[in-house]
Description:
Elements: E1 2-6, E2 15-19, E3 24-29, E4 34-38, H1 41-54, E5 75-79, E6 82-83, H2 94-114
Antiparallel strand pairs: 1-2, 1-5, 2-3, 3-4, 5-6
Amino acid sequence: QATIEDTGSTNRLGLRVTFDETGRTTVESRSGDTRQINLEKTLCKEFIRDLEAVGPLIDIPVVHCPKSVSFGSSLFIEYKGSRSPDISCPSHDLRIGEISKHANQILQAAREATGIPSRTARPHPLPSPAQ
């Protein structure tokens, strides 16, 4: 099994997606919603193959980039007892770039399959006070 975690931000719900090569998937949103779905087998299999090619995720070099305090998010991968550093920042390692790209495709597919929105609900604006 592999797990992809998008921590989310102020205006975007975080999501944790755990799946295997067959596409069996558990999707957990930061709002507490958990759903079981099936993702495309090929997508899941390719992602796990890419993880195997990279080796232990703990060995991925940490890359820092500027992020907004309110709107920045982090992207982590867990596989075979190892957790990656945040891979949301651009990397010079093309393999890490591919993993990040595929992780985001899986996150998007999970959001679409579950109907879990990518954005948090915005409160309705308060009416202007009468003058």
